[in-house]
């Protein structure tokens, strides 16, 4: 791709004119950036409008909301995101987790000490009394992380709402001796609830098919978010030093860093006439979305995903700090969502409003019958590699 002399405002039209193959290359292009500062944390100016009409339409279709409900929810989620840090500080050691409560439209904070309730409410959150602190549950999960998990165990995470650790097992494997032994050992580590899933989690990379954002050998994956000097994507898509080419098979750059399993993160440098833009492709379902920061949305918040196979879909954040047991090995610190994904969506973007959230890793199910997906949170990737998010 050698279009360095083309003005940014024309890039979107050029990509669409090239057909599907062109359109997939993207988080590299469309609207030109506006004023604002970039930082490793990714915070930036907020939009005056909660979302475009197209984004509201997508939320209506995927989440069963009316337009008015979608607008109200985005506004409430923005407020919840803004108060969560203050609420956690107010809770101190009594903090037991937090999530966005869609029914009340507020941030709910779990507490182990009633004496902290007034301070948390003063910070703008509701209070739920629980038995276990987040510190206790996180410590218990770390003990489970040290166990060797069989293939019949899909994932495990701290569930803030239930104030327990949820271990997901494949329904057809729940009676296997190794699965039962893992669950028994997990229960010795702390409060555990077992849930069944139809199938094990898998990564969402795919072999070469049409309409690819980028290739590594014969593997197709999706661009995540632009950073200064390149873009971030999933670690399982390629090893450090592997060459990356774009939709037109011209070289983009190489993987400069890659981690998988353990985490699922990587970044690719951009050179050879390619450039970066602070944009997530809407695939015609919504307008292409500008990225203005990376403030982390709470559990329960709405979130949308863009990928080269299934394009644009939305859902909710279900859990954080999830350990996912892929066939290749466990990955830690993942976020679980109700957004569907399929092969080739790996590395793609999760965004909430105009705030970048993370990178598609894998999951189960599909976009016909629905599914569960996991993403690598973005801010740890930026911190790990010393990158700065490209924001509008």
From TrEMBL:
Which positions make up the signal peptide?
1-28
Q: Which family does it belong to?
A: Belongs to the peptidase S1 family.
> Which residues are catalytic?
236, 264, 346
Q: What is this protein called?
A: S1 family peptidase
GO-annotated biological processes: proteolysis
Lineage top rank: taxon: Bacteria
Q: Name one GO molecular function term.
A: serine-type endopeptidase activity
One GO CC annotation, please? extracellular region
UniProt keywords, alphabetically: Disulfide bond, Hydrolase, Protease, Serine protease, Signal, Zymogen
Peptidase S1A alpha-lytic prodomain domain residues: 132-186
User: Disulfide pairs?
Assistant: 221-237, 304-314, 340-367
Query: Which Pfam families does the entry mention?
Result: Pro_Al_protease (PF02983)
Q: Species name for this entry?
A: Streptomyces armeniacus
User: Has the keyword Metal-binding been applied to this entry?
Assistant: no
